[in-house]
Amino acid sequence: MWKVTARPIPKNDFLASQRTKHSFRDALSAPISKPTLTAAKAQLSIFSHMPNWVNTLMSIRNKIVKYFGFKVGTTTSIEMKKTDLKLGDAAGFMTVISVNEHEVISFAEDKHMQFYMSVTTDEQRATVSTLVNLKTPIGRLYMALITPFHWVIARVVIHNAVKEQRL
C-alpha cells in the first residue's frame, strides 16, 4: 500500500519566499518509523537509493538536455557513503544551502531553472517539498514534459524508503 501522500503546499516557508511567477511546487509526505530521524538523515535515506530504472531514465535525460543548457549531474543519487549532510555538501546534483535538525534545503540552478528541495521531519512524518522556478520558455516546456515523470519517480523513491524501513 502506498503511504506517500501529497501535502498542502506550505505558504510561509523558505521555498515559498523564493517562488517566482513561473514555477512548479509540490510537497509529498510519508510516515517515519524512526521518530528521532533528522532531516539530513531522512534526505540521505530517501535519495541514496535510486532504483536502476530511475538511474537509466536520468542518464538518458542528461544526455539530451545538456545540449539545451540544463545542468546535469554526474550522479542521480546522493553518495551512499555519506552518513550526514552539512552546509555546502553536494547532495546529488544539488548543494545543501541550509541545514538544521528538522529541515535540509538544497539548491541547484542553470540558465533555465532554479531548483530547491526541502526535506523536513517531525516525530511522525518526513516531507519532501520541491520548488522549481522556471526562468525561460524552454524551462517551462521542459517542466511540462517531465512533470508526469517527477510525480511517479518522487513517489516511488519515497515509498521505497518507507517500505525498506530507511525512514
Structural write-up:
The protein contains 4 helices and 7 strands, in the order βαβααβββββα. With 167 residues, the chain is of the alpha+beta class. The chain has a 7-stranded antiparallel β-sheet. The two termini are 16 Å apart.
Describe this protein with a few key phrases.
33% helix, single chain, 4 helices, 167 residues, 7-stranded antiparallel beta sheet, alpha+beta
Strand-pairing-aware structural class: alpha+beta
* Main sheet strand line-up: 1-2-7-6-5-4-3
Q: Give the strand content.
A: 25-35%
- Tell me the major beta sheet: 7 strands, antiparallel
Rg over CA atoms, rounded to whole Å, is 15 Å
- The helicity comes to 25-40%
Give me the count of strands: 7
Order of helices and strands: EHEHHEEEEEH
- Number of distinct helices: 4
Mean pLDDT over all positions: 90
Distance between the termini: 16 Å
Poorly predicted spans: none
Outline type: globular
Which helices and strands appear, and what pairs or packs with what?
Blueprint: E1 5-6, H1 14-18, E2 23-31, H2 39-47, H3 52-65, E3 90-91, E4 94-100, E5 103-109, E6 113-121, E7 125-134, H4 137-163
Antiparallel strand pairs: 1-2, 2-7, 3-4, 4-5, 5-6, 6-7
At a glance:
By secondary structure, the chain is an alpha+beta fold.
